[in-house]
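2024-03-11 09:14:02 INFO receiving multi-entity request
2024-03-11 09:14:02 INFO entity count = two
2024-03-11 09:14:03 INFO echoing inputs for audit
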Amino acid sequence: MNKNMKILIVDDFSTMRRIIKNLLRDLGFTNTEEADDGSTALPMLQSGNFDFLVTDWNMPQMTGIELLRAVRADDRLKHLPVLMVTAEAKRDQIIEAAQAGVNGYVVKPFTAQALQDKIEKIFERVNG
Amino acid sequence: MLAILGLAVTRDENTQDRLLRAVQERAADLQASLAENDWAGATALIDQLADIRNQALYDEVACLTQTLHSTLLDLQLDAGNPHTEEVSQIDDASERLHYVLKMTEKAANDTMDLVESSAPLINYISYEAQSLTADWQRFTRREMPLNEFKELARRVEAFLLRSLHDSDQISGHLNDILLAQSFQDLTGQVIKRVTELIGYVDESLLRMGNMARSVDQVAGIEHDQAALQQGNKMQQSRSRGEGPQIRADKAEDIVSDQVDVDDLLSSLGL
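2024-03-11 09:21:47 INFO inference complete, emitting structure
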């Protein structure tokens, strides 16, 4: 796995962005950027050569599921691996995210191990 | 006004029952009047019934507005209240919750600041201890020339001094992390008070809902429930998300942990 890959962290709570950023740094990923909403994340993704997207679901303007759909609908972004890290825990929602093309789904509150496992699994599949 | 005063006395009797009793009492007389073609008598009876029905309606409406006023007064929301410059209880609750938001955010950030400034100190101790251990083992195996040992002794001393200093600092950070958790006491108190207010508002709204229903019954009004539901602003689109599930163990359509999520995803081939 390329530890220099560029990762976008999207969450409306700055503390959660900071936690994810710290956990990613612990795993050796230091090339991270942040956005506080899907609506600000999408233009960043479209112009920023990101390799990986970690997004929350529940955000004020554009939600994570809408961002995921926008990413999958964009020809240049549709293969971008997306990990959802969210408190949304209804079975229907997880199925909805899977159908929209999410690569991994972590429910909050989560552990560092769960985050690491999902990231490794995603890149095993993407590279495999 | 008389209606309101009368109301206090007769409130224990159900208005609708009273109305029903009045109609039953006069039904036979009304039929008799109609059978005898006594039009004036029948009209008088119908007028009486209409008066009783109107009175019942006034009583119910008066009761409803009285409850509404006393509730608004309790919540300090009443526009006619001379004390409206006082902040309303709902505004006060919003402010309190905003305080909780600020306090929890500050505690989280303070804690993360302290963890982030402790991490490099611990990393240094771990890194340098590893490197010194390797050299120390060379020394105990007598594989180290004297000039290198002098250098090793100097590094060990520097390491010990720095460890002393850094462990003091880390211990200070740990104490500060502990103190940062005191937000829980303060926010807990605030949340308790807001929960009490919500309980009171819920009770008041329920009481007013029941009174409004009794006005509807007396007046014979039926509302279009479907149209009322449609106007419900709280019903949001699903893509908005629902937030954290607080009863994951009691609901079947909610996953209880990450293992559940993984099972569900693998059943979908992910």
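2024-03-11 09:21:48 INFO post-check: The two ends of chain A are 11 Å apart (CA to CA).
2024-03-11 09:21:48 INFO post-check: The first strand of chain A starts at residue 7 and ends at 10.
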